[in-house]
Amino acid sequence: MPRIVSLFLALLFIVAVAPAAALASEDDSGASPAEARALAQERIDAEALEQGIPILGVPLFAPVGYSAWAFVNLVWAALGIFTIWIFSMRNAAKRRRDEIEFAGKSLKKQRAQASKLRSPVWMITAVVLALAGIVVFILTQDMTLPIIWIDVWTIANLLIYVATIAVGTIATRQG
Questions:
Q1: What are phi and psi of 70, to 5 degrees?
Q2: Each residue's pLDDT tens digit, 100-158
Q3: Pair (45, 82) in one structural domain
Q4: Which of 163, 148, 143 is nearest to 79 (CA)?
Q5: Which DSSP category does 4 fall into?
Q6: Measured distance CA(124)–CA(167) in Å, rounded
Q7: Distance CA 125, CA 91 (A)
Q8: By residue range, what is the domain housing residue 93?
Q9: Average pLDDT of 27-56?
Q10: Do the beta carbons of residue 58 and residue 142 sit within 8 Å?
Q11: What was the pLDDT predicted at 98?
Q12: Which of 66, 100, 118, 135 is the most exposed place for a label (fewest CB within 10 A)?
């Protein structure tokens, strides 16, 4: 599981930071970083139109003319993934503990406890919610723009994070 988290963070860096750094290094005209990004985006759009590729705006669901991304939304998305990692570790520890207890019981008690074993449905739901938080962040935030603290999508990201915590708590307490 830690490998998944590190792979996710590497992917987030590649998607968010590397293109902005490449655009900043290409510009030698002395223009501001925002102007350099706008010029680079115009060049990319022009090349795409020449090749017949439709231009899809990123982020896909941001309001028209929106010119910033919210740091708190990134925090909620990252905390969602971290929370799922914590819940999965706790859930795995509980499963190991249950298996050890299960092995030391009589056949009648084993059958009774087998009917109470945890179902992975809640944990899978929590993982899906955490991934939904990442998807919402990616679709609504353009990290090449200037940063602000909160925006119109902060409440949606917060609700997804709270739902992830609630479902993850149910997943670890079930059984």
A1: -100, 130
A2: 776 766 666 666 665 555 668 888 999 999 999 999 999 888 888 888 888 888 999 99
A3: no
A4: 163
A5: H
A6: 9
A7: 14
A8: 66-175
A9: 67
A10: yes
A11: 74
A12: 100
The answer to whether residues 16 and 78 belong to one domain is no
H or E, element range at 95: helix 71-103
0.70 cut: is pTM over it?
no
pLDDT band at 160, cuts 50/70/90?
very high
With contact defined as beta carbons under 8 Å apart, do 58 and 143 qualify? no
Based on the domain organization, do 40 and 3 belong to the same domain?
Answer: yes
Q: Does residue 61 lie in a domain region?
A: no
3 and 45 fall within a common domain:
yes
Tell me if 165 sits within 8 A of 84, measured CB to CB: no
Amino acid type, 61:
F
The tokens 């510009």 sit on which residue? 27
Inter-residue contact 73 to 145 (CB < 8 Å): no
The more confidently predicted of residues 72 and 16 is: 72
- Residue 116 to residues 78, 113, 161: CA-CA distances in angstroms? 33, 5, 28
Domain boundary among the residues 12, 33, 56 is at 56
Give CA–CA dist 125/164, Å, rounded. Answer: 8
